[in-house]
Amino acid sequence: MAQEDFKPRIGDYAVSTVAGERVNAYVPKPLPPIPPVDLTGLSGLVSDAMLALGRLDGVRSIAPDTSLFLYMYVRKEALLSSQIEGTQSSLSDLLLYEDDEAPGAPIDDVEEVSAYVAALNHGLARLAEGFPLSLRLLREMHAILLATGRGSTKQPGEFRQSQNWIGGTRPGNALFVPPPPGDVLDLMSDLERFLHEEESGLPPIVKAALAHVQFETIHPFLDGNGRLGRLLITLYLCEQGVLEEPLLYLSLYLKTHRQTYYSFLQEVREHGRWETWLEFFLIGVRDVAGQAHEAARAISAIFEEDTAKIADLGRAATSARALHRTLQRRPLMTATTAAGLSDMTFPTAMTGLQNLEKLGIVVEMTGKDRGRTFVYQRYLNLLSDGTEPI
């Protein structure tokens, strides 16, 4: 398709005034794009991405308890998405923060990651109740996302009433100026309609990709747009039944290729090249879903190997086995938390953890007598792949 054929897809500009400065704010065209996106050259990638998602959703065949992967994969996505925005927390930081007994758990950045987990869980719970994927639900999730941390003063749960911008020190030298605040509600209502329309016949995975760009272009909130826009991908795929559980941590791909990610968003806005963005997005879904599936297989193998080691403990195996099951859900925790979650006394838990330490299954990470914290190191190392702060 020639470049001039893309012109109808390119949005218009509206004058917006900020502190006396007049700027051109970008107003995107409604979805689906016109002319329609050409999936001819992308059909193979669509199939590959859907197949990879299907295999990922089938981790039940690897381990009967999918909740083990779900608990940690959701936290991995939350961490990665927050890191794209500059958060410096690690997966260990998050797990320490979630353990009330853990000494010295970090507070600042990790609160944002924890809020992301809470926002996603809220959205999924609402969908499970039969509540539609709607502007109201997005506002509810945004309120949770910005309940604490640096964005808590940026009108949580409310569409913006003022002009924002991306990059630069003011709208006049910004990399991108989203639509004027007066256009936000209409644009978001159009996006909501697109999420539920069926006339275009577009596959859900393609609609998720288009909706994400549109959300980021509208930038409807004063803060948290990147994180909520990435949450929208997962929420929509779950709502459409493409994923039964939010096991996809796509932000790993977007973090790794973040400059390309941002440039492709701008390519759509300036040149209408939706197909270029779709290719990038579908490759990411295919690759990350495949990686997550392989990680699940590797994690299951670790669990099996360590279960076999525990069997050699004889009478001490009972408590060690119970603690091992708890560690599969919480790979980093204090001895006090381990005792509570495993329904045993502290001395019994402490002895069991020391037995696991002798077997090389856990490592005590504080070196102290009080507030001892144990980590299921091999498991956490696998989960932490790619989560180093930027």
Q: Are there runs of 5+ residues with pLDDT below 50, and where?
A: none
Q: Which architecture name of the largest domain does CATH use?
A: Orthogonal Bundle
Distance between the ends:
37 Å
CATH superfamily assignment of the largest domain?
A: Fido-like domain
Largest sheet: number of strands, sense, barrel closure:
3 strands, antiparallel
Secondary-structure element order, N to C = EEHHHHHHHHHHHHEHHEEH
Summed up, the helix count is 15
* Residue share in β-strands: 5-15%
Count of DSSP E strands?
Answer: 5
Q: Can you walk through the features of this model?
A:
The protein is mainly α. It folds into two domains: 3-294, Fido-like domain (Fic-like fold); 313-383, Orthogonal Bundle (Arc Repressor Mutant, subunit A). 55% of the residues lie in helices and 6% in strands. It is built from 15 helices and five strands. It is elongated and about 75 Å long.
